Amino acid sequence: NIEFSIDKKTEAEVSIYNQKGSLVKTLLANKKISGAQKLNWNVSGVVPGLYYCRLKTSDISKVVKVIVGR
What we know:
Blueprint: E1 2-17, E2 23-39, E3 49-57, E4 61-68
Antiparallel strand pairs: 1-2, 1-3, 3-4
């Protein structure tokens, strides 16, 4: 699960990238949201390793590391 909170209603995008910077999955695309959010990323079929999750709004862009195990 990927959890985050946004104070004011804004368009947000949440995407997963691999170590090479290639897009793996878009979990949320340009949707207006606010408050606490919880997204599920189904990792079945995903190669174990390090990935990056990016939350992007008009105000912020934040990246966190995500480790997928076996």
